[in-house]
Amino acid sequence: MTTTSKSLGRSRDVTQPLDKLHPNETIKAESNLLRGTIAQGLEDPITGGISADDQQLLKFHGSYQQDDRDLRDERRRQKLEPAYQFMARVRLAGGVCQPWQWLKLDELACRYGNGTLRLTTRQTFQFHGVIKKDMKRTIQGLDAALLDTIAACGDVNRGVMCATNPDFSAVHGTVYELAKQVSDHLLPKTRAYHEIWLDEKPVAGSPAEEEPIYGRTYLPRKFKIAFAVPPSNDVDVYAHDLGFIAIREGDDLAGFNVTVGGGMGRTDNEPNTYPRLADVIGFCRPEQVVEVAEQIVGIQRDFGDRADRKRARFKYTIDERGLDWFKAELTQRLGWSLDEARPFRFDTNGDRYGWTEGLGGASHYTLFIENGRVQDVDGILLMTGLREIARVHAGEFRLTPNQNLIIANVAADKRPDIEALLKTHGLDGTQSVLRRAAIACVALPTCGLAMAESERYLPHLITRFEEIVAECGLEDEPITIRMSGCPNGCSRPYVAEIAFTGRAPGKYNVYLGGGFHGQRLNTLFRENIGEETIIEELGPIIRRYAAERTAGERFGDFVMRAGYLD
């Protein structure tokens, strides 16, 4: 048995014997274009979960089956199945959401989820704690808000990221529109989502469905795209399979430098898996972006590893075949060559907090949301406050790649109302520079891959570091700190100046020396250590940095210069 895939403008037969492939390839090939038996599984009252095969297909619909790991041992002792629940992820290109949509998201999270919203590192929302019988209601509620979860997970192009605050310039606005075009163009064409979740009925006599971009087995693994607008690299463009770096000519958008082959994921004790920074391969004009994106996705579809999922990301395809091979293949498929890359400069990958001014007299307020969790806790009425702001705000909400929220395009006459609501709900306070430069993945208790805490633990660890930086006068010095509960790297840890990846409960690998604006990978510093050892090891380095740094020297650069990673 073989699979056949097609690329734009030509037929390309890729012979892949299914008995040599990863089992997921057979699941996809035999799924009737992602339908499987998901609909039947949702109706099964005997279990709170669905079958293993359908769990793989469910990802393409924007959801993962999970269970509450805090309850796992107790339920096992009671001879009960795990406390199955589902994470649902919204597809939201560039992270832009209307206030009325925010209110619907808030309502759904409180009615069907765990009463919180999670802002992700890829500029979208996640619902946690949705039980099986409420999944259709949740997705139908999103549909009523003109939102969906299509392709937010799975072996397809995921949500497309875009530099925040598009209205700071006309260039930002144009880039955002292109990001949306790429997101929409690369969606799967199957109607499975609409049939399963929205009760769409197949039309008798319709032609057979096709996936003109993906083929019946889709991609070997997930694919991620980001659009950056220098000098900000808030999207961490080098950490993506495909990136577009905006190049300006005065106030106009000339085009984009194209980057390929980035990716964060790795597996402990398997050296043939590793993080990789993307390479800049050339320049394209704005009207060429969609075609470039499709053809690059097609190359990964046809040549990515479908036998070993740990080696199935685009970065490995490029490393195995070579960048020169890739550029030649892309040129052949496009029928034209990219131009030479053009100069650009990044200086940060962080957010600008507080009030900033945009175009046309509007203002933007960037609100810090620790690790992206929107909830009311410890006197900070974040969820309630944002609900009230959404009721009066006439602009947009924009989710940042650093898990924060921009209350965007606030009209001058509305700003006093927004400011009052921020104060009333305790949202106008300031956090340390160190805390504002830290992000974490969800990890425990919901992520099935987590080996250690992340979201729930990092705030405590940051408090310990705050004591050290205050002691040596570094309160105003940003240091990027990121934590993931496992080595897969959802918080993009491998480009941070300090990073922690979970190995076991309370134990982490520590990485140092990443570039301040995401331009350099960090290096493993210590393995499998706990909190006290972390403080004992990093405290002296931070103190030495305070005493010996040169003017403007970033922490990651100092660690490299001081020889800690030799």
Between the first and last Cα atoms, what is the distance in angstroms? 50 Å
Structural class: alpha+beta
How much of the sequence lies in strands comes to 15-25%
Shape: globular
Percent of residues in helices: 25-40%
The largest sheet is:
5 strands, antiparallel
How many DSSP E strands? 24
Number of helices: 17
Mean pLDDT: 94
Give me the Rg, rounded: 23 Å
- Unreliable residue stretches: 1-15
Order of strands in the sheet with most strands: 3-4-7-6-15
Defining key terms:
globular; 5-stranded antiparallel beta sheet; 566 residues; 30% helix; disordered N terminus; alpha+beta; 17 helices
In short:
The chain is an alpha+beta fold and 566 residues long. The chain is built from 17 helices and 24 strands.
